[in-house]
Amino acid sequence: MAGYDYGNARLRAMKSRLLSSYELEKMAEAGNLQALIAELSKTPYRRPVEAALARVSGLECISVALHSDLESTIKKIRRFYRDRAGAMVGVVLRAYDIRNLKAILRGLSKHAQPSEILFTVLPAGELTDDILSELSRAADPRAAIDLLATMALPFALPLLRLRGERPGAGTAEMELKLDQWYYHEAFKYLRRKQQTEGALFSALQLDADITNLQTVIRFAYAPEERNFLKDWLGVDDITNIFVGPGKLSFDLLASAGNQERVDAAVENLVKTAYEAPLKAGMGEYTSTGRLSVFENQLNRFRLDWLSRQISRDPLGIGVVLGYLALKTTEVSNIRWIAQGIFLGMTANSIRLELMYAI
Q1: What's the pLDDT score for residue 2?
Q2: What are the C-alpha distances in Å from 2 to residues 5, 8, 255?
Q3: Dist. CA 185–CA 281, nearest whole Å
Q4: Residue 237 has what pLDDT?
Q5: What is the structure's pLDDT at 327?
Q6: pLDDT at position 125, please?
């Protein structure tokens, strides 16, 4: 598709520099953080690691280097695409705006310092470094929302609407409204551009479904949490807590989420596209009792699906979707390796939690 040629060629070149599973598993054997930093210095992370070492050391050095590298990468991606392709990439990267706003609102509610808040954000979308910096210095979440409104930024709309409906709404409700607004606006834009059959529309549906599936599994695991949220939000129907919708209907999700046991919720969902990861998660859950296994299985399913878009949509947005999924997963893997080493975990235990695309 016209407009993607240059950017996709650049991303394919960048994809070739991603670390292999062998390199990552070798890092898990580093033994200590100094050795891990030395290993990272032999990879494409050399420059951000060296820059971080000039200021900090140990686990903080790795964290700073990874944050800097990912921020730089995402900004590059935005610059690669223009016109219609640029607008489509903008829809993808707007998800980072939502994450940034959620991080800022959460930080302000906890009275975190601006520097602490800014370390958690990745300027990639419409919210520039300057805007994010100004928002991080707001007195509280309400002041940040007012600031968004004075800047005439669209992100203020769902937050102002929520304030009008529920003046005392907390940050959790604000975050939910931002998520719901993001999917609503993205789907509306793609329908207007007649892009409902493309990779991006399907990717958004996938993300909405996975978000909702994690919610309903958690509700079935802890029915009291479901009931608490319904009372807290003043709603009778848990569909008010869902985003999207994706490919899974809200009615089906509600049926699963209203179950009293995890296995009953999964049984409601087995005849869907998510049967394989849910069954795999159920098998692990039965033996471990850990709810996080469902999140891991669903995230692996997402990574596999997105990475395959590189070959399925080689001339379109699929290359962006696939590369971003692979890159962010690589960063998450390195973070996990560093954390595991810091906690004194064995190399084998660290390797078991690494995630790769099939």
Answers
A1: 60
A2: 7, 11, 43
A3: 32
A4: 82
A5: 97
A6: 87
Nearest-angstrom CA–CA distance, 234 and 173: 12
pLDDT at 69: 96
Residue 139 and residue 158: Cα distance in Å, rounded? 20
What pLDDT is stored for residue 224 in this prediction? 85
- Rg, the chain, Cα only: 21
How far CA 195 is from CA of 82, 89, 203, 263, 272, in Å, comes to 17, 13, 12, 36, 23
| Distance from C-alpha of 48 to C-alpha of 51, rounded to nearest angstrom | 5
Amino acid letter at 352? L
Helix H, strand E, coil C: the string for the chain is: CCCCHHHHHHHHHHHCCCCCHHHHHHHCCCCCHHHHHHHHCCCCCHHHHHHHHCCCCHHHHHHHHHHHHHHHHHHHHHHHCCHHHHHHHHHHHHHHHHHHHHHHHHHHHCCCCHHHHHCCCCCCCCCCHHHHHHHHCCCCHHHHHHHHHHCCCCCHHHHHHHHHHCCCCCHHHHHHHHHHHHHHHHHHHHHHCCCCCCHHHHHHHHHHHHHHHHHHHHHHHCHHHHHHHHHHHCCCCHHHHCCCCCCCCHHHHHHHHCCCCHHHHHHHHCCCCCHHHHHHHHHHHHHHCCCHHHHHHHHHHHHHHHHHHHHHCCCCCHHHHHHHHHHHHHHHHHHHHHHHHHCCCCHHHHHHCCCCCC
pLDDT at 132: 96
Among residues 328, 161, 188, which one has the least CA distance to residue 244? 188
CA distance 42 to 26: 13
Both tokens assigned to 112: 């975190």
Q: Which residues of the chain have pLDDT under 50?
A: 1
pLDDT value, residue 234: 66
Which residues, in sequence order, are CB contacts of 184 under 8 Å at separation 6+? none
Q: What is the C-alpha to C-alpha distance for residues 182 and 175, in angstroms, rounded to an integer?
A: 11
Q: What is the pLDDT of residue 334?
A: 98
Q: Are 11 and 80 in contact (CB under 8 A)?
A: yes
Residue 235: predicted pLDDT: 67
Tokens of residue 266, six digits = 């999964």
